[in-house]
DNA sequence: TCCGCTGACACGTTTGAAGCGT
DNA sequence: AACGCTTCAAACGTGTCAGCGG
């Protein structure tokens, strides 16, 4: 079993991969050894490189690829709750035009977002670290009246999944001092009710076993099916979680920095986007900081709740901005932000907590934890 | 007219119960 | 009786398409 004390080597490995600009932002010590790795990273990268789209339907649609992560650095015998939510990348909506996504104005008002709790929660750290955890049953919907706990998204808006590791014996006794949030830029996607990019369709058909019926015949496969009935297939036990087991992993290495460093980082990010042409999603790193599948680096802030993010290792299909500016994110307008409220008095009201690669978080301190509606939105 | 959304459709996959043998 | 394996059928999940509505 992977024990907390055994990660020093990995930390060193990752730290040695820091480039100069990142080193200048790194904090000399790390407050937490919790790390999260995206297991099916290469699959995500395949989609990310052409612009991931996720279908949302009234009754809920599963994600594909779904999120599969490995956690390490937990205390083996301490209980943790692991949750996932999906937050807006920025404050814009998009449209598919001329074979690419481009901005189509400000984002629509967003409904409250559900937080999806992993069904194993709460569980001791050794359980979480024993094997990768995935969220294959999570469904996305555009039905704001959804009563099934599906995560509500808006079509034509960009999102990314976010994971929270909370030290807690039960979901009703979360300890704010130990919340760690993780996100992966390559998991950003555009929510759609129908696929826009045919490349995405093809990639999904190639990788998703549920779509095998569409592998041949292209767009005319539907009519083909009508005349080519095949006998019922045997029942091979195919574990969808194993579809990308061989994926190289993207590792999330905690590092810390402080507010002044965040400002520098933001300035750097904005500078990298000069010219108005987006080099990628709002989560996309400066290309000069792009790291490949080697241990990745993130920037994190030493606060009660951290969000850790690593750059994607592949360029993303460019987004065309009609505004000549980087789609600077909104303040996480969905309800999920409330999940990250720190306990009262834990930080100043205006202190920004996280800003990485253009993504900017600021804690809302208008509600304290005891009043947080997160649990009422949490589903598992 | 354009564009996004919805439901029907047929197919493959998953799941769990039932049956059988050891 | 308990266990493990196989078989079967229903449920589920998928992308495509036509039609609808704003």
Can you describe this structure?
This protein has 380 residues and is α+β, with helices and mostly antiparallel strands. 16% of the residues lie in helices and 25% in strands. The strands form four sheets. Strands 2, 5, 6, 7, 8, 12, 13, 14, 17 and 20 form a ten-stranded mixed beta sheet that branches. It has a five-stranded mixed beta sheet with strand order 9-4-1-15-16. It has a three-stranded mixed beta sheet with strand order 3-10-11, with no helix packed on it. The model is unreliable at 1-31, 217-305, 310-318 and 320-377 (pLDDT under 50). It binds a DNA duplex (22 and 22 nucleotides) through residues 55, 57-58, 61-62, 64, 95, 142, 155-156, 192-195, 201, 204-205, 208-214, 219-223, 225-226, 229-230, 232-233, 235-238, 240.
Q: Give me the strand/helix succession.
A: HHEHEEEEEEEHEEEEEEHHEHEEEEHE
Q: How would you sum up the global shape? A: globular
Structural class: alpha+beta
Helix content: 10-25%
Residue windows where pLDDT falls under 50 for at least 5 positions: 1-31, 217-305, 310-318, 320-377
**Oligomeric state:** single chain
Main sheet: strands, sense, barrel: 10 strands, mixed
Task: Specify Rg, calculated over alpha carbons.
Answer: 20 Å
Ends apart, CA distance between termini: 26 Å
Query: How many β-strand stretches?
Result: 20
Average pLDDT score: 60
Approximately what portion of the residues adopt beta-strand conformation? 15-25%
User: Treating each run of at least 4 consecutive H or I residues as one helix, how many helices?
Assistant: 8
